[in-house]
# Entry
Amino acid sequence: MYHYQECGLRNVWLVNGYDMHTTPYGDGVSIHDIEGLHRAIARGLVNKAAKLTGSELRFLRKEMGLSQAKLALILGNEDQTVALWEKRGTQPKIADRFVRALYREFDEGNAHIRDMIDLLVDADREEREERINFVQGSQGWKVAA
# Structure
């Protein structure tokens, strides 16, 4: 079996799906369908019973393409808070649950969730009241373009 530490997790072992080979620089490994492997790892993390470790939280965050700062904005925290969660390995239960739910929606391709998250992040950056104009049309009131 191959101990796949390159993913940033200490507890991932591959039974198959890889090839060992010798290179001029030493022994090497080629992993088949690494994107599929990472999706499988992430799904396993989302479905595990125990709370996520810091490295597991980092893995899921990176799989979604989020920086610590962006995840912090989504959760309403500071980026240093997310960095501490990842380093110390503990985060609030609500953050643990939300990151799992967020990954599940990301994995299943829910574009509406991604759009909503981007909107929330942008709204948090603004943090000022903006005027919202409404117009009445034949089908009732709506936000003006």
